[in-house]
Inverse folding.
């Protein structure tokens, strides 16, 4: 389960969820090597936030990924899941009346742009 804010070393925690996880925390939750998660983030294949040179992963993304796998009832490909996740958010934003003229063309996935490998 996603660690909560104010977690104590003994495992007790408050009821408030942390909105973001570090790569180390997210990789542990996903049972991945950190380098694998960094690669997916750099290549735009996993949703995250980059602040300066540091990546953060929204805790909600991990929870939605797990829920999606349970709902699907089979192995979920992360590339397909991330593309569908972006499409659903773009559609929700458009339905809510967000204006793509503000510098973001939501339909073109530029909220999580794919980078080419170097």
């Amino acid at each position: 389960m996603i660690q909560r804010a104010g977690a104590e070393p003994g495992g007790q925690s408050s009821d408030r969820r942390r909105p973001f996880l570090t790569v180390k925390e997210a990789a542990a939750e996903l049972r991945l090597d950190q380098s694998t998660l960094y690669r997916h983030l750099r290549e735009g294949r996993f949703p995250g936030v980059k602040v300066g040179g540091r990546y953060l992963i929204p805790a909600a993304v991990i929870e939605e990924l797990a829920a999606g796998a349970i709902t699907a009832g089979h192995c979920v490909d992360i590339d397909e899941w991330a593309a569908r996740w972006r499409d659903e958010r773009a559609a929700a934003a458009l339905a809510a009346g967000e204006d793509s003229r503000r510098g973001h063309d939501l339909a073109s996935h530029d909220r999580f742009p794919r980078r080419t490998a170097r």
The first helix runs from residue 23 to 30. The two ends are 35 Å apart (CA to CA). The CA atoms of residues 12 and 69 lie 28 Å apart.
